[in-house]
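Hi team,

Filling in the usual template for the complex we talked about on Friday. All components are listed, including any nucleic acid strands or ligand strings, so the model treats them as one assembly.

SUBMITTER: L.P.
PURPOSE: interface mapping
COMPONENTS: two
RESIDUES: 609
SEQUENCES:
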Amino acid sequence: MAALYGQLLIGLINGAFYALLSLGLAVIFGMLNIINFAHGAFYMMGAFCAWFLLHRFGLNYWWALALCPLIMGLFGALIERTLLRWISSLDHIYGLLLTFGLALIIQGVFLNEFGSSGMPYGIPHALSGGRNLGFMFLPNYRAWVIGFSIVVCFATWFGIERTRWGAYLRAATENPELVRAFGINVPRMITLTYGFGVALAALAGVMAAPIDQVRPLMGADFIIVVFAVVVVGGMGSIAGSILAGFALGVIEGLTKYFYPEASSTIVFVVMALVLLARPAGLFGRTA
Amino acid sequence: MSPALGRAKPRLPRLANWSGGLGFALMALALAVLPLTNLVYPYFIMEALCFALFACAFNLLIGYAGLLSFGHAMFLGTGGYLCAQAATAWGLPAGLALSTGTAAAALLGLVVGLLSVRRQGIYFAMITLALAQMVYFFFLQAPFTHGEDGIQGVPQGLLFGLFDLSNQTTLYYATLVVFLAGFLFIVRVIDSPFGEVLKGVRENESRMISLGYKVDRYKLLAFVLSAALAGLAGALKAIVTQSASLTDAHWTTSGDVVLMTLVGGMGTIYGPVVGAFVIVAMQQYLAQFGQWVTVIQGLVFVACVLLFRRGIVGEVARWLRL
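RESULT (copied from the run log):
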């Protein structure tokens, strides 16, 4: 039984990362109508940012948790202003191609600098160790990752669905011209939204650094699974992407216990089944 | 699909008029003479021809049906693995091995197409990418593919019992003939009434539905055709390189074929061929720079999207006002 609970825990952890990353993709998609292929590269950069802060500036995990999303958010905003804005009037496919090119550049540069092997990043002192729950051993850091990502996901959902700024954002998604006519600076909103989505990816990267190793390709294959999660959740839905992220993480964990051979493909199989039953995804509206 | 992706003008079938036929004849002649000049290794041209056929198959979807498949490597990989398996383990002659690879890719295309043509645009891209990753994991784990090692030492044998493919010259011209046949087939499809319907779907899907076309069936057939031709390219590559490996099924190869088509010109018939030669040459000559090739490819991607969306052939055609 301990093995089952262990796999469930790993599933929840993976689910937390799926949720954070697919949430960022959903936020960006809602506003810019592009699929951010560079999301995995930004996730990786978040982890490297934490590593740099620790080894170059001596700033620990908690500083990284606050600073990396900020730095990467600014970087994302810069990319939106300099590159993505150029092609905003074109077919959305070009956004995908452009961000795919960006991902190749970023990952290539990091591979040249650091090689493909990973660098360790220690678990912060306050969260080392763990506790015995009676039926299983729960490492403190993993409990923190699950708890904190739920808080971040809920806060993002609340901010978009329940606040005045979120209402502006949703309105600008539906009809940007009309919202501009009301005196709201929509282009700035687009920049901030993209920056926020990138910041979410970087935050996930910082949280992943002590679990995974800090390595240039940590986001490359991971992001394809996240795409499948996004398809399952339905692109239009913030809540859908969060729930699908956690659910698919758990399903993946269960598969690792009951039928390990299928663990790397189960998310894609679920995606295929969902597409057969509901082409718009579980929570999506038919586009 | 917005008009940005395609610039089709109503015109005569391209190979029926004299200039179209001349263009094709020039390309065939150039490719037939190229290995005699000793300027480039025939092996390099053969590999480029395989990728050119692959890119033409991909272009049938993106250029004429407006569907961006981001998982086309799964068909190249399937064609390659099944052809290699047929020739090596089952002992089939080259012609049958090529057919096996093509048929397997077509079958996979049918399954993937049934799932994916129900969504458009970037959804379609994401779904095909995810399904391709699934196929990749299948090849990684299936015993017959030998995992990371791949299938090595594929026998080339006799094609149709007549042509000995282990002879370099025979292999070259056999590859060229398969490529040209595949190319002609694609052009014929594009110029057929079926192709006209596809272009209609690309330009305005709702309108085609209102005209009574069952657009999903047209898109599915286009997808299966494209998958089969990509499979043929993969099978041909397995015969040429005498191996099948995981690289062909990896998502980086899917990215490569998108780049080839984008560089050459989406929605132009010669564009993918030009793009394939450019990218294969780039990978060949820049191989010494290691990972910088990836960076350069990324830069080319960004530059093409921002500045040269028509691609090489598209830009040249615009200057010449063709």
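MY TAKE: Chain B has 13 helices and two strands. Confidence is low (pLDDT under 50) at residues 1-12 of chain B.

Thanks, L.
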